[in-house]
Amino acid sequence: MMKSLIFLVFTLVLLPGTSLSQLSPSENRILHQIQKVLEYPPSLDTFTNWTDFCTLPSTDTLTITCSGNHVTELSIVGNRTRTSSSKVSVSLSTGFSIDSFFTVLTKLSSLKVLSLVSVGLWGPLPPKISRFKSLEVLNLSSNYITGEIPGSVNRLQNLKSLVLADNLFNGSVPDLKPLRVLEELDLSRNALGFLFPSVSNKVVSILLKNNSFRSLIPAELKGFDQLKRFDVSFNHFIGRIPPYLVSLQSIEYLNVAGNQLTGTFPADVSCGGKLEFVDLSHNLLSGKLPLCIESNSTSRVVLYSWNCLSDGNLKFQNPNSFCHEEALAVKPPKRVQEKESGIKIGLVLGIIGGAIGAMAILGMIVFIVFRRKGREAAEHNIYEKADVRKDSSLRLSPKLLTDARHVSPAMRVGALGLPEYHVFDFDEVEEATNNFDPANLMGEGSQGQLYKGRLREGSVVVVRCLRLMQGHSSQSLLRHMEVISKLRYRHLVSLLGHCVINHQEYSNGATTIFLIFEFVSNGTLRSHLTDWRKKEAMKWSQRMAVTVGVARGIQFLHTGVTPGIFGNNLKIENILLDENLTAKISTYFLPIPFVVGSESPFKGLESSERLDGVENGEKDDVYRLGVILMEVITGKASSSQDEVEAQRLQLEDALTNASSQLLLREVADPSLRGTYSFGSLKTTVEITVNCLSKDPSQRPSIEDVLWHLQYSVQVQEGWMTSGDLSMSQSHGLS
């Protein structure tokens, strides 16, 4: 009996889940309070009045670790995931106060790990974040935190990981060099800029993608011997690309895509021995790739399309003149070029001249007010004074035609090869269409007619006629035409110009806009997939190039103009191909809200509904791109939603089946046999299935789709330059 009792006591002492001391009552109350403030998220459903927090088993959505009766780790993953365009509709309620929340949270004074992901936090991050003296990991990703990152964050002397990705932070990043032990910095997908963050050279990972940084990549990175991951893609970094980036001792992943980096690589530059992935695409680089990158290696992925490089696959490069012109247009911000001494001198001079400047500004304000009143009066009469034959167009000012405030650098890339935007006279439109000859009528819809025409210099164009509703203002029309004039891009059927008339004898007295588009004569993507004569030219490489073009066109519509253009009703029969098989989207949504018969998805919506409409429009465009991708892969058209879903399930099954390689080859268009890499096909099928997800929030962003398609192209290029192509063709396999 005594032996059994001793054994029982010994066993209880050694049980791993048993705690001989409880969490302090104050911290116990704080955890319950956190559950309440976060509005009872599902991940905290296990919290009850009797919960022993220190013995809770860890899950994918909740981890609580204790030491010495104190919480040392609190990791919560909520269900309020933030997508690329979502707003406060899935954040915590308006009664939430982020300041009060962190006042409570900082009472967990022993925290070493704090991770609050997708819990719906909103508002500016309070400076009291610095009260976590023991904090080593701070992860607040995928929330709705706004404003600047507080400078007090650099007082967290023990911080090793700072992850603030997928929020709404803006402004400059505070000096992070005092964080001597910082190893991971992830500020991706915010609106931060414009200088590169100042960090310690001990950092291992720097992720800044999808922000607004516009500066040089600093030279001191050359001494970052421990840096393994460096991703600054899709920003506005400028200047010559630092060759040492590929040579860093520990670098494994390097992504500088989607910037405005210029220059060439020295021929003798060496690559770091651990380098596995390099993405240099969509910059302004020229010359040749370093030999260490160019050499064919199965252990290293290299992406370099859409630069001006003179080696590799030239089909996916811009001409040298393009990079030269773009480089001239890109200059470092003045703040980057100035020396510190110059700033100090400017400050002194500014103080001395302050009083004089104030007097000058006061006089200027008076002048501007009177001048603006005169200008507004002139604009108000823009139609009343217009003669139909002599001055029939709503004319954009020279400033409007050259002002780049509403267009991204991508617009200048896409407008390559197009003539300057032109405001046409009505005489020119009539002449081009032969007085709107019915023989030139290409189609007619609720919004107006479509005519084929020819300009005086011989160019064939398409003229789209749009009637405006009564009651619109000339100022409003002028603003919208400013956006319209920016729709010039390599992968859109681009606008060449417009004409606006207010003709009492035409169109029942309604104001009419004539939009003049380029004419694309080589048929649709659908016809190239179904017509046996055209199909011969549409092997896998050509199809992938087309899909990349379509994705880039959608990306431009979403991000290349402000405001972005969403809900574009994309269809494969509306993707046109020019003589070089360059894809051009022909039926994107035109942001003119007062067009008769307008199909704007946002017409008549309140502001909150409009925000939801933008998000739905973005995800709808991604879904429709998925439908296009599916037909490109299978060669089969889908005439109904049920057919789309059936084909999606077939692709999904082929991916997950143990015999996926065989099944994927069976679902692929038989005419592609022997022309594709299995890795390229699989990557494309995977992103297609994701695009077709029933849940819009689970669909990828257009940037993610584009990245995967470009990666698929690169895999295909590597396969074609190896010996596998001829071998697969000789065996009738792919």
From TrEMBL:
It catalyses: L-threonyl-[protein] + ATP = O-phospho-L-threonyl-[protein] + ADP + H(+); L-seryl-[protein] + ATP = O-phospho-L-seryl-[protein] + ADP + H(+). It is a single-pass type I membrane protein. Keywords: ATP-binding, Glycoprotein, Kinase, Leucine-rich repeat, Membrane, Nucleotide-binding, Receptor, Repeat, Serine/threonine-protein kinase, Signal, Transferase, Transmembrane, Transmembrane helix. GO terms for cellular component: membrane. One of its GO terms (molecular function) is receptor serine/threonine kinase binding. InterPro entries: Kinase-like_dom_sf (IPR011009), Leu-rich_rpt (IPR001611), LRR_dom_sf (IPR032675), Plant_LRR-RLKs (IPR050647), Prot_kinase_dom (IPR000719), Ser-Thr/Tyr_kinase_cat_dom (IPR001245). PROSITE patterns: LRR, PROTEIN_KINASE_DOM. The chain crosses the membrane at residues 345-370. Its EC number is 2.7.11.1. It comes from the Eukaryota. Its main location: membrane. Residues 436-711 form the Protein kinase domain. This is non-specific serine/threonine protein kinase.
